[in-house]
Amino acid sequence: MKKTSQPLILLLLLSNILLGQPFYVGADLSYTNEMEDCGVVFLDDNQPRDPFAIFADHGANLVRLRLWHTPAWYDTLHVGNRYSDFADVKRSIARVHAQGMQVLLDFHLSDSWADPGHQVVPAAWAAVVGNTPVLGDSVYQYVYGVLRELAEQDLWPEMVQLGNETNRGILQTQAANDGGWVLDWHRNATLFNRGLSAIRAAAADYQQQVKIGLHLAGPASVEWYVDQFTQHGVTDYNFIGISYYWAWHQPTTIAQTGDVISRLRQAHPNKEVLILETGYPWTLAWNDSAANIINDLSPAYSPASPEAQYQWLVDLSQEVRQSGGSGVLYWEPAWVSSPCRTPWGQGSHQEHAAFFDFNNNVLPTGGMAWLGADFGPTGVAQPGTGTTKLTLSYQPASQQVQVALTEPLPTGNWHAVLFNVDGKGVQDWRELPTDTAAFTLDLPTLPNGVYFFTLFEGQVVRGSAAVGVVR
Question: Kind of pairing, strands 425-429 and 414-420?
Fold first, then answer.
């Protein structure tokens, strides 16, 4: 067969292919029950409302809930009341599901906060912390038991993460944790795999669907950690979760975070990537005696204001989505000031970065507005229903694509995105002509491969076609 010197152009009409899956936007609302029990009344437009309903109505579709094993330390703060234990989590799951949102259950695998600086074994397992097989069995039985009860009570979570910001070895003694960064990969992998297998077993036994994830802090180090997990046999999970805060992860920018997500999607195409935590202040003032934990501002989003908080979240979400990521969650936007205490002070350490003002009323131009914003199309192909018939003609010499429609586009919010086969948007045309049935669009220089041109009206796909370039 004669080899052509010109690109072979393959045009496929894909009117039934939708390049877009639901993009997760939401928040960790683990503090919400406690805030209400402490007397907080959440307001939306100055009207008292169920806080979970507020988030659902503003556009949230996923709520993250942390689970501590036995947070007995709460007993000295609120007599008789513990939060983020199993009973509290079940209460929250029911409230989230009642509002039509999904749940991401966050196993901290600790009695208290787990993060890059703290990965301390629950007191119930302290006696076996040095025996990895027995400790692994404890993890399995605990995780399976939690999920079994949730399934039996019709509280099954749609997503589960095993561990929270696990940048060091999990389930350490207090002494080992305080001794510095510890990562025995054989031990770590054994414990993770036991927990992951428990989630899979519970889902299979109770005929439930679930997405399973790992969670790491800081975009700059995530790729190394994911590679280490893979090399040590930890692979049975569906998504990679990342914490990204300017305050702790600067100078990594939003654009650089997008680059990390893009590389992760390319290196691990069967794994989704989400920002599981982010946060940004709307003010540097305070409303109680508890020290605020986020105080650094990005020069690009300064001074602090509700509008800066909103823009940080919109820009981050657009970058995540265009890089092939699947969602962004905010950390604790309902953790407002109250008479209650933490181990470090009275009130909230996050009221200045919540989605509510100091009177517990929704900030209309702040982060709550982000939940309903348009972040552009996602980069993951799913079945759908396109309605606008189109054909393409790719011009390699000029790096242009000619678009021919059956009829001119009606007036509306039309735009188009070109995706590569990894689901990353490589070109975004934010405005399209509505007075013609044929127009030409400039393309970037593209490597050989198949690309998907998708036509959107707002966030609704109206038509798609694919172009394959083989030299």
Answer: antiparallel
